[in-house]
Automatic annotation (TrEMBL):
This is DUF2461 domain-containing protein. It holds the Pfam family DUF2461. InterPro entries: CHP02453, UCP028451. It comes from Flagellimonas allohymeniacidonis.
């Protein structure tokens, strides 16, 4: 049976790992970690199952606890959190879901982290032509109640070929289109957390729908998919 609750034991372990982030401690506690990891994977599998009730998920990816320290100043070998992502199915459905579980810093994230050059240009051209539908979606009161304001990095000035005085320049300058929702530990450890995750992901769909429409059509609204 898939888990629908994050146990306090999982957060207790992550707190202890944060204070003892070394190989000797981790190896001594590896059996405990493997048991908790299995429970967390089961929770993520249930999140995916719930998502598939109202979306089409191509794959779920659970991230490893081991850190890649080759190019990092921080040489601690382990992540003191669990994380996983869910990719939507096929070329028609764009966007992705992310869930990180960390004591004091749990959050959901959705959207477009690193659009490729072609996708980013297409999005910017859409905003240059007409951003009213997009603004309507992300400005809806019910949407903002869950996801707040759009987040992500942008360029400091107008991208090449775009007017820095354009009325939609705040959107055109964006390189990322992300929404984040944070949770307290009390919320994460409650029985209702998995339902809140699913309701939150369901609430992002209008944003995914308009972005998918932009990225699968040309500026005339004609499909670019085969």
């Amino acid at each position: 049976m898939k888990s629908t609750i994050i146990s306090k034991k999982a957060f207790d372990f992550l707190n202890r790992l944060a204070k003892n982030n070394n190989r000797d401690w981790f190896e001594a506690h590896k059996p405990e970690f493997k048991k908790l990891e299995s429970e967390i994977k089961s929770f993520y599998a249930q999140v995916q199952e719930n998502l598939n009730e109202h979306d089409d998920i191509e794959k779920m990816k659970m991230f490893r606890i081991y850190r890649d320290v080759r190019f990092s100043k921080d040489k601690t070998p382990y992540k003191a959190h669990f994380a996983g992502s869910f990719s939507r199915l096929g070329a028609h459905l764009r966007g992705g879901y992310y869930l990180r579980l960390k004591p004091g810093e749990t959050f959901l994230a959705t959207g477009f982290w690193e659009p490729n050059k072609e996708d980013l240009f297409r999005i910017r051209k859409e905003f240059e032509m007409d951003a009213s539908d997009f603004r309507k979606v992300i400005g809806e009161k019910s949407f903002k109640a869950v996801w707040g304001e759009i987040q992500g990095d942008g360029v400091k000035t107008a991208p090449k070929g775009f007017d820095k005085e354009h009325p939609e320049i705040d959107l055109i300058k964006r390189k990322q289109f992300i929404f984040v929702r944070n949770f307290t530990d009390k919320e994460v450890l409650s029985e209702d957390f998995i339902n809140e995750v699913d309701k939150s992901f369901k609430a992002i769909r209008p944003f995914f729908n308009i972005m998918s429409d932009i990225l699968t059509t040309n500026l005339n609204g004609e499909s670019i998919l085969d």
